[in-house]
Write a structure and sequence with these properties.
The protein is of the alpha+beta class. The protein has one domain: GAF domain (Beta-Lactamase, 2-Layer Sandwich). It has 6 helices and 6 strands; from the N terminus they run αααβββαβαββα. The chain has a 6-stranded antiparallel beta sheet. Strand 2 and strand 3 form a beta hairpin. Helix 3 runs antiparallel to helix 6. The chain starts with a helix and ends with a helix.
Length: about 170
């Protein structure tokens, strides 16, 4: 029986060894962010139009195209949002880039990741959040196309699919 445990331990160690180091993966993701060279750049009218279209699609007051850097989230394009950047606080864009699929929070105050986010607790009072990861061709999520509202709500599958298409246009 001890021999079986040793084999199991070796298999588990091998599997663990193959998992990517989270810090190394984050450095690679940040290198992808820098490769796009969009941080602290002037507004792009086309991207602003995409953010406005995303807000219109969901009849929401706020939409943005974000780039998630190490310590902040830069809003490359915005609609209904006066901020150029915010802290890298968890819960919204920083959480959305951890997924391959859209992240929808029908009520951010009820979500353990987001309920302490400054965009949720501050003057903006975000309750609904839908973030579509902006994925590079080599597989790194560098930001989001996101839509936000001041009241809890949801989005339909068709609306989400349309936002996924818009996110693809952003990356093109």
């Amino acid at each position: 029986m001890a021999e079986g445990l040793d084999r199991h331990s070796r298999r588990t160690a091998s599997i663990h060894y193959l998992l990517p180091d989270p810090e190394e993966e984050e450095e690679r993701r940040l290198a992808a962010v820098r490769r796009f060279d969009t941080l602290d750049t002037l507004p792009d009218p086309i991207l602003d139009l995409i953010a406005t279209s995303a807000a219109d699609l969901l009849a929401a007051p706020v939409a943005a195209i974000s780039v998630v850097d190490r310590n902040r989230i830069w809003f490359k394009a915005r609609h209904g949002l006066d901020l150029h950047h915010t802290s890298h606080a968890p819960g919204l864009c920083a959480s959305a880039i951890m997924h391959r699929t859209p992240l929808m929070l029908p009520d951010a105050l009820q979500d353990s990741r987001a309920k302490s986010n400054p965009l949720v607790t501050g003057d903006l009072g975000i309750r609904f959040y839908l973030g579509i990861p902006l994925r590079t061709q080599d597989g790194f999520n560098i930001g989001t196309l996101c839509v936000m509202d001041h009241k809890p709500r949801t989005a339909t599958p068709k609306q989400i699919a349309s936002l996924v298409n818009l996110a693809s246009v952003v990356m093109d």
